[in-house]
C-alpha cells in the first residue's frame, strides 16, 4: 500500500514540471534575504527557541484553521516571541501556497522557513525568490546523494537548511552531509504516529555541541517543551496547537523553557 509520503512525492513531480514552465523563475536573479540567521539566533538563545508554523490543514488532521490570514498570524507569532516562522507552502495536502510565504516574509523580521517537500533545485529557487531564508529538506523523501546535492545548492543560494530526520539511519546521513541545523521529527511521516521519545533517543547520537537541534511536531504543554529541552534540543517546531488557540501569546510563552547545554564545551 502507498504511504502518504509516496503519494505526496508523486504529486510533487507534477508540480515541479509546472515550475519549469515559469519563465520568471528561471530567468529572474535571486533576491538577497535580509532576515537574520536562524542558526545564529537559536545558538545565542538560552531558552528553547520556537519556530511557529502557519498550517491551515494537514493530511493527518484535516482542516486545522482555514480562516486565518497568514501575515497576521505570523505577526502574532513574532509578537509572542517566536524566533522563526514556518510556512507550509504545499497546496494539495496542507492548503498552503508560496504566496502565503511571500506575504508572511513581508510582515516579520525573524527567519522564514519554506516548508514543503523539496525534491528539485527549482523549488529551492522558488523559495529563495519568494523571500524564504530557510528551507526544509526531508531525509525520508530523498536519496543520500540527492539530499547532499540539494543541501549544497541551497547553501550556495544563501539559504539555511533545516534537515529533517526521523531515525538513526537518516540522522547518520544528515551528520555525514555536515548539516548544521538538524530537525528531529517526532511524527512518523508513514504512519503519522507522534512520539516525543523519538527526539530523546536520537539526540544522544549528536555529540557535536555546535549543531542546532530542533524537535518537531506534537508540542502542546510546558511539560512537552521541558522534556525535549532536558534532552538537549535548542528549539521546537510547533504548528497545530498554535493554529488552534485563541491565546497565541500564552500558548507560546509557556513553551519558552530554559535549555540545557549538550556536549562538553
Ligand atoms: O502541527 P505540529 O504537530 O505542531 O507539527 C508541526 C511540524 O513539525 C509539522 O508540520 C511537520 C514537520 N515536518 C514536516 C514535514 C512536512 C509537513 C509537515 C511537517
UniProtKB/TrEMBL annotation:
Family classification: Belongs to the TrpC family.
Species: Alkalibacillus flavidus
Any coiled-coil regions, as ranges: none
Pfam families, A to Z: IGPS
EC number(s) on file: 4.1.1.48
PANTHER family: INDOLE-3-GLYCEROL-PHOSPHATE SYNTHASE, TRYPTOPHAN BIOSYNTHESIS PROTEIN
Catalytic function, reaction form: 1-(2-carboxyphenylamino)-1-deoxy-D-ribulose 5-phosphate + H(+) = (1S,2R)-1-C-(indol-3-yl)glycerol 3-phosphate + CO2 + H2O
Protein name: Indole-3-glycerol phosphate synthase
Indole-3-glycerol phosphate synthase domain mapped to chain residues: 5-255
Pathway(s): Amino-acid biosynthesis; L-tryptophan biosynthesis; L-tryptophan from chorismate: step 4/5
